[in-house]
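Message: Just now I want nothing more than another pair of eyes on a protein record. I am handing you a single protein, as its sequence and its fold in token form. As I understand it, each token names a local backbone shape. Take your time, and here it is.
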Amino acid sequence: MQNQSPSTPPSPNLSNKDDLLAEASPASLDELMNRAPNISDAEADQIIAYLRAQREKFAAQEATPKPKKVPRQKGPILISCPACGRCRVDILKIAAAVERRLKKYPQPIKVAVMGCVVNGPGEAREADFGIACGQGVGAVFVRGREVKRVKERYLHDALFEVIDENINRR
């Protein structure tokens, strides 16, 4: 341990860049250099260049505006698949019908309408409520859990029965 008078601050660890940054924050570069007299001019120039670059980097980060939080929209959000070749139902028709009926709900719920058994269950599970269609049959989901399977012609009504039963339990 070095003998230092109580008024002399400890010498910075010049081998650690984080220590250099911490030392440079409250003191000027000249003061830092005066506290480290045993380094060469070339080392001093490197340290000063590094510290200046770091200060510029930090200043740029501080000047960058922070993203504003976007409030969640009011009312439901509908998520639907793009109707690829795996879809065995008229997903666009089902999604349009679900979207029309969702306009009656003021709650900020997320509803997924998926058209196939390949990606549908996984995507529907990410929503508060959802359906994943198969060939002639579909599954209804509540927060990732399949709650019922129904024939395609009853799928729309089954989804809204489940929404109405569970909407206030979220």
User: Anything to note?
Assistant: Residues 1-6 have pLDDT under 50 and may be disordered. The longest helix spans residues 41-63. The radius of gyration is 31 Å.
